[in-house]
Fold each of these.
Amino acid sequence: MKHNKLERRNFIKIGALGSLAALAAKATAAENAPDPTKIVYRTLGRTRLKVPVVSLGVMRADTPGIVSRSLEMGVLHLDTAHGYQDGRNEEMLGQLLKNYPRDKYIISTKIYMPRDKNTRQFTTEATNEKFHELLDISLKRLQLDYVDILYLHVCDNRDHVLHPDMLESMRLAKQQGKTQFTGVSTHHSEPEVIDAAIESKFYDIVLSAYNFKQKHHEQVRDALKRAHDAGLGTIVMKTMAGAYYDKERQKPINCTAALKWAIRHDFVHTSIPGASTFEEAEKNCAVMYNPQITDTDIKELEEGLQYSSLYCTGCGECTCQCPFGLPFNDIMRSYMYAYGYRDLHLAKKTIESLSLNADPCSNCTDCKVTNCPNGWDIRAKIHDILRIKTIPDEFIV
Ligand code: SF4
Ligand code: SF4
């Protein structure tokens, strides 16, 4: 009995110490927690949605913990797409977000419409019915009645943006309450796509690739400014430019500096950097508390310009020189997903969506593309990434 009492006393003592330790840990966590009043917000144009300058591109976050940690750190806007991880990305968000009040996050998804691999124009399968079929699946996966922003995904040119059937699909989506706002996303020919979105007098938001490695970043910047001036919301992606300068991942890009560079102007309203680890997510989120770019950051990024990187700038040189009109931007984007982000699944899906044969270069003795500004051996790169088609899905985690 005595023994038990001692045990009991010890238990109380240990319990009290444990509680004190827990309280102390909580207090330390609270002290270390970022001060939400320090978050820098901007408004997404006429949508009046106010968001921190850093949002979350959910594409690479395949665990809900990364999303909830980002929300905890102040993120409001979550960006996904119908095609990410074959729909599992939207499903994961649906499972997680049912625990959050609907007014505690702003969510976007994107619908990709089929296009001809040679002309890059939408095929006859790009119909209003198809669009809404995909959108309804997305809403079901997300367990939502509506998204806040709905994008027409991967617009390559003015025709995509102003395609009458797509405009009608978007208009209906708004009318039926499936989305609050509409937008276009663009990975190359960004100025043309952004200007078409302005011209449409319909779209509310542009989501554009924008980073310090783009050869045409000044034109993208100016187009984003025009969009802002016209009242559109402006969101940037691909801010990390592939995250590494080299395929071997020995030379990392300073992603924090790169992110700060991309949001350094007020007319860029927010960014959607991705994260596949807690560390990456926390590093990205820290930028919303301190987005000021320093001279040291700029110097480091400038030094990085001397290196090639995994990011295809979409300069179009290869398109002009290759007689077979291969979809270089998409092939190289897939390369970046595989080697930069180590997302083999996304890399494979991107390649498969292009319907290329096993060796699209087989008709050439010598490659005609000789002046890629990245100094890439284009043929070797195509050959390298196309091998991914032969890897069975079950070997790709
Ligand atoms: S080898 Fe070069 S020129 Fe020929 S198809 Fe391939 S990329 Fe085009
Ligand atoms: S030439 Fe190089 S950087 Fe330019 S679009 Fe082609 S692969 Fe990309």
Note: The two ends are 56 Å apart (CA to CA).
Amino acid sequence: MSIRTVGVVGTGVIGASWTGLFLAHGLKVIVSDPAPGAERGLADYLHSIWPTLERQKISPHASLTNYRFVGANFKDHFANVDFVQENAPERLELKTKLFAELDAATRPDVVIASSSSGIPSSRFISECAINPARVLIGHPFNPPHLMPLVEVVPHPKTAASITEAAKSFYKSVGRNPVHIREELPGFAANRLQVALLNEAYSLVSRGIISAEDLDTCVTNSLGPRWAATGPLLSNAMGGGGGTDGLKHALEHLGPASRSWLEDMKAHAFTWTPKELDALSASVSEELRGKDTKDLERQRDDLLVEILSLKK
Ligand SMILES: NC(=O)c1ccc[n+]([C@@H]2O[C@H](COP(=O)([O-])OP(=O)(O)OC[C@H]3O[C@@H](n4cnc5c(N)ncnc54)[C@H](O)[C@@H]3O)[C@@H](O)[C@H]2O)c1
């Protein structure tokens, strides 16, 4: 089924960004958020990101105004949406009630995707009386209008056709969906991120490297290389490539890296106030004299360049 109209629920950090992406791809968006001031906040945010979206290859039908804000009342407006992206706060009771209402307000074949970063959808479908098999997670990376990854995580009873429909919709709006086959905390990308961050916290809080140098390590080595080939392909190429490349790399460097892992476990960051203070002081030093808004702009400009080069 072709998707022309998307329902977006919640217009905070993530919902507003999704709305911009959908508008840029020529879709109509029905937007719901109960908060006073949400309509104004959304309009301001969309204006602020539109120039960045225009620099990407967006649809000839893209329109900054092709949306309708309906406040809390999506029930009267979602009968004709073709896809729902939910972005309400990360609270189980709230999502359980909301999904029951979304299930009742939409056509039964419509995919209802939650942006949730941490709650598996099997936990909030218990009150969906119509068709819980069309619910899944469509977890973006912030901000979704720039970052291509969407982790599509079905619950055990999500229909396979719904998973496929969600993946194909995300592809149609220029995203790169991956299928996480089992519900697990943190899905895949955030688990990878946490593994690296924990070691970064440890190294900086122990004073082994400054926050600035730590960031330089990543932006000048792992970051660009992984942006090109990802960690596993990079690993295989480091072992000479070909079908035995990864095996060779593991046999060659594996024993040493396993001993590093033991050392990392022995010195893991333990979140004590002393460690947090040391970490935070080094990051503050890195931020000294820099304006966060400028940094955000520079980051977004660079991301647009990198991602368009990758295409
Ligand atoms: N912030 C991130 O980096 C990030 C990244 C990926 C996924 N997520 C997920 O996206 C979802 C939204 O997170 P966020 O960071 O945008 O939160 P946020 O607090 O910025 O926005 C939540 C919005 O939901 C609205 N809201 C409150 N009650 C509501 C209701 N009953 N129905 C509809 N909307 C309601 C609020 O007014 C607010 O505008 C969460 O599930 C979160 O886990 C967040």
Note: Residues 139 and 157 are 18 Å apart (CA to CA).
